[in-house]
Automatic annotation (TrEMBL):
<dbReference type="Pfam" id="PF14224">
    <property type="entry name" value="DUF4331"/>
</dbReference>
<protein>
    <recommendedName>
        <fullName>DUF4331 domain-containing protein</fullName>
    </recommendedName>
</protein>
<dbReference type="InterPro" id="IPR025566">
    <property type="entry name" value="DUF4331"/>
</dbReference>
Amino acid sequence: MSHHLSGPDLRPPADDPRLDLTDVFAFQSPEAAGATVLVMNVNSFAFVPGASPYLHPGAVYKLCVDNDGDDRPDLAFSFVFGEPAGGEQAVTVYYGAGERAGGFAAMGEAVVADAPVAFGPDPAVAEAGPLRFTACLRSDPFFADLEGIGDGFTWTGRDTMAGKNVVALVLEAPDDTFGAGPEIGVWGRVSVKRDGRWISVDRGAHPSLTAYFNPDDRKDEYNAGEPVDDVANYRDAWIEVLKHTGGYTVADAEHALRTVLPDILRFDRSKPARYPNGRRLDDDVTDARLHMVTNGRIPSDGIGPHSDLLPHFPYLGPPHA
């Protein structure tokens, strides 16, 4: 998987597909020079029979941005959804900077209020000054032969993700919205309130980390954590994983992990986006992660990007019927 089904036993966090953060993307806008696009895909309902594409009305979905390299959020966009009714749902977007960027609750000012979520083929685009936003059902851009991965890397030639949908939260804004310099770090988080306090039930940035590196009994702990603690909490265990799966030396494993620990997607916007410098919708992150985990011992799964990506906002293809 990418970040789909990131709870224990390849299940959604808290056994609720609505709370599942599936992917994070960051790339230059194909339409507007000097603008950055951030995408947070959520809800693994496509893998759970009977589940719906509605988002959890009691949760906070958050995109965090570090723009000074200290692995802590300097600004954040939080997305809070209303109760679904009559086949419709609304979302409010909050922007918080400084102290209002941290934590798990939605803080800051509402920059988009009660915008409709689009569950049909046409996205509902909201604008707040130069910022564009949509929350909409879209074709899931992730591609991989997951059946082959599960069968010991015996490739089937079939894209497991073909025909799957996801809910995309897409933001586009001028570069300086996210930081004055070219380098930013991005990650997503999903939080809920339990027993009077907010807890994180999912978080991540890089694709296919927790599936390969975290045993089931540490996945909830990982999802509840902060990137600033990742190196201290996970480096040693993940070095052991790479020694086992790819025959790495300790030094080589440490070097490989510098790209993904902490779990923040770094994006130098002075350079073209291509994973791991940001992530485009068509980047082959499955091959990238397999190459890393096995030290190049496993060949490509041969699956390519989806053909339904759009050259215009919101860039993800329309949803499948």
